[in-house]
Specification:
With about 80 residues, the protein is mostly helical. The chain has one domain (about 5-80). The chain has helices spanning about 5-10, 20-30, 55-65, 70-80, and strands spanning about 35, 40-45. Strands 1-2 form a two-stranded antiparallel ribbon. Strand 1 and strand 2 (about 40-45) form a beta hairpin.
Length: about 80
């Protein structure tokens, strides 16, 4: 966890998770994916230690919605698939 994460803490979850929140969460997990760096895994988007705040928020939203890891992987794959 980066020092800024220690200061700011995690992003709050919505009071109830809507379909729109799920879309935002999938986008956050996709954009803030892990990337290997010499000093370890970092967020592809902001270079913070992985998982960064937005990736953690996205996963917590998806967990709250009741999605399994497999379902999340499928949704991420849909987001990253090339469009015809």
């Amino acid at each position: 966890m980066d020092s800024i994460d220690a200061i700011l803490g995690d992003l709050p979850l919505p009071p109830y998770v809507t379909a729109e929140d799920v879309g935002f969460a999938i986008r956050a997990v996709t954009v803030h994916a892990a990337e290997q760096w010499p000093d370890g895994q970092r967020c592809r988007n902001d270079r913070a230690a992985h998982p960064c705040r937005l990736h953690r928020w996205g996963r917590r939203v998806l967990d709250q919605r009741g999605l399994t890891d497999r379902q999340v992987q499928l949704l991420v794959a849909e987001q990253t698939a090339p469009r015809p």
